[in-house]
């Protein structure tokens, strides 16, 4: 059944509630037509009007191997023909499920033991919270349930994970955060540091604030701390020097588990396989999604460390079966896809490319943007980076949010065929291209971004919005 593009747009407007889209403007047509995405190859996507875009955000920083990899499509198809579905309850498994789990336990940092599967980063973090509660119930500490997250952290949109997320616009009008979640200060030196405070001093202060929070709440009530090795949606911000060492010292002192949310950083984005390795983080629990399948099909995992798993195993005689699971946990197509994707990640050394091409990318961004009057900070690691725009560099003064500077620059880039994301918290342009991106493609990304930034900067200068 063929439909015209306008019919597709009409059906969509009439029947889809889109994430992060103004519902009324979209449904009424005021916001214009949807972008109907029709294809993708390498780092580019196409829309139904024949436009091609460089996707310098890899979807939502997830299509790490790039679009249109036949090898992965074939693995998905083969599995669908052989066995599209069976559950993994009551000790049922598939060869691909066992192989992937063995692989993840061996490749993950720290002392990992078992893998529990879901379909999204959000549900995997939901699982992590339940694991923290289960673990502390089984070891006779039923009061040790609070989970501390950070301002600007992003951990998903479901009830627990959305509560962990540390940005108020994800909570507003949704009755979040729920009671057991607390937020401590963001590891964001640019906006958080006192005048003259070094990164090390700032990290020590954040760790002291965490310790004060744990003492205030009562150490016997705090079960876990969750953090992304590199702050992602909250601004693509690598941790300040000394941050993770200082934080981990506090967590160990008060017997607080550490959940590393590697949904963005997992499988190579920072230039090594896991952000934990990059920043010497020893997690008790690790969350992965996105890069696990490069988003070819939905799959996520909570990777469980030996310390937590041992308590689960030791408690099993008392409590019986582990009573948590989803119809799609360990879905055969998901795990077959993940194995095919990880084959590519390893064979093509994508973490290595994120390291070397990423270093080139970071250098080029600094060369081109660091001196521009509206750029307060250029930051990033591997193949993730951000430009932070400010009205006054010297006074570190933000633009009036009503000017929507980040969104305007993102739109100007898009009009030139480049997708770079206006990050939701501030005037920030985010980049996280596929890990297969080449130097030539980096040059194209930086050139288009420069033209877009200069266009909006000139307009703001004319409007006297720049200091
Ligand atoms: N954790 C992090 C660090 C993320 O960046 C995201 C999504 O962007 C999530 C969790 C939630 O993943 P999902 O959107 O698949 O639920």
Question: Outline of this structure?
Answer:
With 467 residues, this protein is of the alpha/beta class.
Q: What order do the strands of the largest sheet run in, or round the barrel if closed?
A: 4-10-9-8-7-5-6
Unreliable sequence segments: none
Tally of domains: 2
> How many strands appear in the DSSP assignment?
15
Rg (CA only): 22 Å
Q: Return the CATH topology of the largest domain.
A: Aspartate Aminotransferase, domain 2
Shape: globular
Which ligands, by name, code or SMILES, are bound? pyridoxal-5'-phosphate
Helical segment count: 16
Tell me what you see in this structure.
This protein is an alpha/beta fold and 467 residues long. It has 2 domains: 35-65 and 349-462, Aspartate Aminotransferase, domain 1; 71-347, Aspartate Aminotransferase, domain 2 (3-Layer(aba) Sandwich). 42% of the residues lie in helices and 15% in strands. The protein is built from 16 helices and 15 strands. The protein has helices at residues 5-15, 23-28, 58-61, 70-83, 95-107, 121-138, 159-164, 189-192, 199-217, 243-253, 275-278, 306-319, 332-347, 350-369, 405-415, 439-462, and strands at residues 37-41, 44-47, 52-55, 112-118, 146-150, 181-184, 222-227, 257-261, 285-288, 300-305, 375-381, 384-389, 418-419, 421-423, 428-431. The strands form 3 sheets. Strands 4-10-9-8-7-5-6 form a 7-stranded mixed β-sheet, with helices on both faces. Strands 1-2-3-13 form a 4-stranded mixed β-sheet. Strand 1 and strand 2 (44-47) form a beta hairpin. The relative contact order is 0.14. Bound molecules: pyridoxal-5'-phosphate (PLP). Pyridoxal-5'-phosphate binds next to helix 6. The site of pyridoxal-5'-phosphate (PLP) has 15 residues, from helix 6.
